[in-house]
Amino acid sequence: MKLLPLLTEKSLNEAKKGNYTFWVDMGMNKAQIKKAVEEIFGVNVGRVRTMNYKGRREKDSKGRIRRISPRKKAMVTVGEKEKIDLFETETKKKK
């Protein structure tokens, strides 16, 4: 079971609101994703939304064709007072 966190600027801003984003296996359904997140991070999952990305071919900088694999993204909403520590960001204070 593959569950990789997606750490981008947009996903970290959504994490502050309680929405966490992961790359998951293509074969996983919403119930399996919910169960995996609850077991791994020990939080109560309220909602799971998924998006499928098609595989495609594109050229790299040297003109060679490379294949981009299909993948699936899941956005998980947890309870109001719960957090996943992996998505926490630190703010740097100016001196």
Description:
- The chain has 95 residues and is an alpha+beta fold.
- The chain has a single domain (3-80), classed as 2-Layer Sandwich (Alpha-Beta Plaits), CATH 3.30.70.
- 20% of the residues lie in helices and 36% in strands.
- The protein is built from two helices and six strands.
- The protein has helices spanning 9-15, 30-41, and strands at 3-5, 19-24, 45-53, 56-59, 65-68, 71-78.
- It has a four-stranded antiparallel sheet.
- The protein is flat and about 50 Å long.
- The model has no long low-confidence stretch (mean pLDDT 90).
Count of folded domains: 1
CATH arch. level architecture: 2-Layer Sandwich
Largest sheet: 4 strands, antiparallel
What is the count of β-strands? 6
Give the number of helices.
2
What is the top-level CATH class? Answer: Alpha Beta
CATH topology, what is it called? Answer: Alpha-Beta Plaits
Please give the structural blueprint.
Elements: E1 3-5, H1 9-15, E2 19-24, H2 30-41, E3 45-53, E4 56-59, E5 65-68, E6 71-78
Antiparallel strand pairs: 1-2, 2-6, 3-6, 4-5
